[in-house]
Amino acid sequence: MNYLELTLILAGSSFIAGLLGALTGLGGGVVIVPLLTLGLGIDLRYAVGASLVAVIATSSGAAAAYVKEGYTNIRIGMFLTIATTIGALVGAYLAGILSTKIIAIIFGVVLIYSAYLSNKSKEEHSDDEEPDPIAVRLRLNCTYPTLSGEKHYNVDNVVAGFGLMGLAGILSGLLGIGSGAVKVLAMDHAMKLPFKVSTTTSNFMIGVTAAASAGVYLMRGYIDPGIAMPVMLGILAGSLVGARLLMVFHPRVLRIVFGVVILVLGMEMIYNGITGRL
Amino acid sequence: MMKEQSVWTDKRVEDIMGNLLILGVIIAAALAIFGGVVFLIRHGLEKPDYGVFHGEPSDLRSIEGVISQTLNFRGRGIIQLGLMMLILTPIARVAFSVFAFYKENDRLYVAVNLIVLCFLLFSLFGGIAIK
């Protein structure tokens, strides 16, 4: 295989990864890293580096549309970004000292968890609880647009959310993914934000978090232009098309199928990590 | 006489932020496509070796190196410049947030954004130190 063929294969598979990632809300990173390593035999570090760059591109592209709609809570986003950027630096540091075997196993576990989460139904929270005093101090409580006008929401468990975000940042820096699954866990379950607010705010943070570890990856020579270029452009194009499609239909069946695919990829990552083939 | 006053509301900040992000992504993608074409025209038929990890040469991992590669019209250098622009996009956004919250007189969030900005700059310029 020469560079031209590899570029086309990478761009094509990244496009599909971006498309599926956008349609299912899991992001392109979770599929592209297993695809590059298991499918094309590319070293895990190059794969993670390319994926990180793609994560910045898609999150910035999508955030541009989201912030204008008014769902994103920039205060929550920025406050929690302190936790995710610290985590991202720790993750990038760990990526340099852990063996690729261990990283592959952790990746597999995160994939399986994401598959489980993507098929769980979402519940909206009621808003009659007392707000967390820290949230009041930090002015995190806010409103968001609904069909019946602006609706107010309170933010719960700020400390637990902050801690979980640190974990999300570590995973992002270590695995080159947006770790939307952990972020949703923090904001949805711990802090009890409305679903629309937590997804868009999570997306807001993903780009900044990925930039923190991407800087370290770049300086360390993990980001190869020949791989990162087609992966970044493919995922970006795929996720833009996916976001458009999402306005037209809600892919329930696709979500289940994609969940199964991720589950299988996760088990394969763990298997390959244990047998030392990655 | 009415004095012209700029109003820094959350809404306006969000709009500018959105545009900033789109601009960064467009510049990065354009550089990556252009560099990719240059690279593939010259080296498209050579065989890559990505199965074994070598790490990038120093010219592709430092800001000065990438700029000199770009000035020499090297495809990989131009792609890397695009990727650097992409990494800078969220950093520029945080820097803008510092300014915007300052204009809104929100000291607490000026501080929050400055903390994040410090981590990001440390990653980009001091990243090599935590190798």
* Pattern of helices and strands of chain A: HHHHHHEEHHHHH
Cα end-to-end separation of chain A: 20 Å
What is the percent of helical residues of chain B? over 70%
Report the biggest beta sheet of chain A as strand number plus sense, adding barrel if it closes.
2 strands, antiparallel
Alpha-carbon Rg of chain A, integer:
18 Å
- Overall pLDDT metric of chain A: 85
Q: Count the strands of chain B? A: 0
Which residue ranges of chain B are poorly predicted, with pLDDT under 50 across at least 5 consecutive positions?
A: none
Please provide the ordered H/E string of secondary-structure elements of chain B. HHHH
Shape of chain A: globular
Strand percentage of chain A lies at: under 5%
Class based on secondary structure composition and strand pairing of chain A: mainly alpha
Largest binding interface between chains:
A-B, 65 and 70 residues
In percent terms, what proportion of residues of chain B is strand? under 5%
Helix content of chain A: over 70%
Q: Counting H and I runs of at least 4 residues, what is the number of helices of chain A?
A: 11
Q: Helix count of chain B?
A: 4
| Mean of all residue-level pLDDT scores of chain B | 85
Low-confidence stretches of chain A: none
